[in-house]
Design a protein that fits this description.
Helix content: under 10%
Strand content: 35-45%
Strand order of the largest sheet: 1-6-5-4
Order of helices and strands: EEEEEHE
Distance between the termini: 39 Å
Oligomer: single chain
Length: 99
């Protein structure tokens, strides 16, 4: 089976806090990820991460806030080893998180 490794990052200050969903095990945000395996942008990204929208919002022309970017770092068979390194996030300090 073919696999694709995708890493991404989001700018949490762009999150519309009204879209956060309280669940039994925490707070959630629905996102949508767009990935183009054939092309990269000027920053070597393959796609973007947006805040998900409802059908009504999409019909009204809302495309969702762009929260960040995605980058394909591996394509191949599921038993294969990664062909690139996964970017590691810096450890977040709770006071730095804007919500």
């Amino acid at each position: 089976m073919a696999t694709v490794g995708i890493s991404g990052s989001i700018n949490v200050s762009k999150i519309d806090k009204t879209k956060l969903i309280k669940g039994e095990k925490g707070m959630y945000l629905n996102i949508t990820t767009f990935v183009n395996l054939d092309e990269k942008d000027e920053y070597e990204n393959n796609g973007m991460i947006t805040q998900s929208t409802t059908q009504e919002e999409r019909e009204a022309g809302d495309r969702g806030v762009i929260l960040g970017n995605t980058r394909v770092f591996y394509t191949g068979e599921s038993q294969g080893a990664s062909s690139g390194s996964v970017p590691q996030a810096k450890e977040a300090v709770a006071e730095d998180i804007p919500f």
